[in-house]
Amino acid sequence: MSGFGDPAARLVILGLAPGAHGANRTGRVFTGDRSGDFLYAALFRAGLANQSTSVHADDGLRLDGAWITLAARCVPPDNRPLPEEVRTCGIRWLDAELALLRPRVVLALGAIAWNAAIDHAVRGGHDVRPRPTFAHGARTILPGSGADLVGSYHVSQQNTQTGRLTPAMFDAVLGQTVALLRTDIRAALPTSAPRRIREKT
């Protein structure tokens, strides 16, 4: 299961593993299930997707400035990969994707994805001590790449249907990531250049 999105993305959204009835069935991450419905509707509201729904791999969905990938590429029991499953069925592909994309911000959906992003930095030879603790809305800097790592509760049906993660909560975290991207763009502009960034409406 490969990632999906804009190859020039500066935001990587890191999930857990393919859903048995979603990505594993449709062939595209977060597609064809309730988690994808929640995620892509939020990305559309944030101006990062051209449509709010994701039904199948050829439905015309495009992402702008975002790439979505997974910590593990195999469908795990109970939709929750164990550490050994992440190691054997994920890290090689995740390391390759992050090395190619070199994102400015990584949005980790859940503690497993959060730890996978930190472990990527550790495998790159960087010291990550004390190890940052996952929380919804948590933020830290990944050593080596300097990318911001932002945490969110996973968009799983278990979280969204119980109210642990609401659309407003997720929109707030997405807004935080977009603000980090825009701040980085402004900081990179030459001092003689106009410092106006066109905002999405």
Provide a quick synopsis of the model:
With 201 residues, the protein is of the alpha/beta class. 37% of the residues lie in helices and 12% in strands.
Counting structural domains, the number is 1
Secondary structural class: alpha/beta
CATH topology descriptor? Uracil-DNA Glycosylase, subunit E
Portion in beta strands = 5-15%
Which CATH class applies here?
A: Alpha Beta
Q: For the record, what is the CATH homologous superfamily label?
A: Uracil-DNA glycosylase-like domain
Mean of pLDDT = 86
Elements, N to C (H/E):
EEHHEHHEHEEHH
Helix content: 25-40%
Largest sheet: 6 strands, mixed
The count of β-strands is 6
CATH architecture: 3-Layer(aba) Sandwich
Could you please describe the fold and organization of this structure?
By secondary structure, the chain is an alpha/beta fold. The chain has one domain (4-188): Uracil-DNA Glycosylase, subunit E, CATH 3.40.470. Helix content is 37%, strand content 12%. It contains seven helices and six strands; from the N terminus they run E-E-H-H-E-H-H-E-H-E-E-H-H. The chain has helices spanning 23-26, 34-45, 83-88, 91-101, 111-123, 157-162, 167-188, and strands at 4-5, 11-15, 66-70, 105-109, 139-141, 148-152. A six-stranded mixed sheet has the order 1-3-2-4-6-5, with helices on both faces. Helix 2 crosses helix 7. Residues 186-201 have low confidence and may be disordered.
